[in-house]
Amino acid sequence: MQNKTALGHIRVLDLTRVLAGPWCAQNLADLGAEVIKVERPLVGDDTRSWGPPYLRDETGENTSEAAYYLAANRGKQAITVDISSDEGQQIIRELALQSDIVLENYKVGQLKKYGLDYDTLKELKPDLIYCSITGFGQTGPYAHRAGYDFIVQGMGGFMSLTGERDDLPGGGPQKAGVAIADLMTGMYATIAVMAALSHRDRTGEGQYIDMALLDVQVAMLANMNTNYLASGVAPKRWGNAHPNIVPYQTFATSDGHIIVAAGNDSQYTKFVQAGGRPELADDPLYLTNPRRVAHRDQLVPLLMEMVAQKTKQEWIDLLEAAGVPCGPINNLDEVFDNPQVVARDMLMELPHPSAGKVRLVGSPMKMSVTPAQALSAPPLLGQHTSEVLGNLLGYDEEKLANLRTRKII
């Protein structure tokens, strides 16, 4: 019996590339939507060549698929269309008429030149949901600037909060290890699209969604924003420490690192007792959290010395038994070997047309009736062009061959 899907009745025309847009489209595909990814003939999504590493085939040789591309394109069908040509533009308009959602991340105004903007398409299909993703949005003085995740992390305040303290070695601003502005924009775009679908299903009315990386980066600072707005004092970088709680940070063990999050005085006492230093709980300087915060520069070196005496696993076992919140800092080998990650099906394997099979990360959306699932690997460039244009638009082999000859598809 085939599983039900939440979005099996929805078709998405995906004109996006790189990460934020494809991430949104991949979420929709995981939830069952039919996603048609449109790419430039012969070239494709930029991320297809963002390697190494590349996916390897069964003989160990590199394929043409970069690992970066694989991260955001599972579950989609891939077609190639030259949208700079009149006939390519007509193909996109015909596909839009057959779709519920259009996603795009072109520069502001670029698709209007091609007659593929929202105002043009909504005249053909009034219930269309059209989502644009750009660095700075469709309005404002920066609207026409190109937006890049790294730059937005800096502009949006994230890097003012992230990194080691300025007065410590290695101090200074630091970007995140993944493109968080892109990824969070993809997530917010997914939510906005789902809300627009709900509205359309109730009213029959489509709408335009304007998503900007900078907007998202500002919004996701959460309590750091409100800390500033309430106090008027801009937060500063604390590295892996916490401005208000001690100890609440990383520590180096004899063979790795752990996180200790002692959120109250009882947990702190249990922590130092487990480390054989109970006197650090009785010292008047460290008796309460406010005192530990005030004297962190004296206390933390003592705790670092204590933690360095045992291995990562010894500390995890001791602190879990004592009820002290803690955790390891795992590399990805350890992440994918973790029994909890395995039990939650966060690693999967799908058949792949050139590599035989590909290992991918599973969806974190666990739903009891309409489970998220990926049924196909990230597609090869143009893998489904004939199928999609033939089935949806009724193009015969002669027409498809003619379009290929002229590099329209």
Automatic annotation (TrEMBL):
Tell me, what is one Gene Ontology molecular-function annotation carried by this entry?
Answer: CoA-transferase activity
Q: Which UniProt keywords apply?
A: Transferase
Is Ribosomal protein included in the keywords of this UniProt record? no
A Pfam family assignment:
CoA_transf_3
Task: Name the InterPro entries for this protein.
Answer: CoA-transferase_III_domain, CoA-Trfase_fam_III, CoA-Trfase_III_dom3_sf, CoA-Trfase_III_dom_1_sf
**Protein name per Swiss-Prot or TrEMBL:** Formyl-CoA transferase
Species of provenance: Undibacterium terreum
Instruction: State the taxonomy lineage.
Output: Bacteria, Pseudomonadati, Pseudomonadota, Betaproteobacteria, Burkholderiales
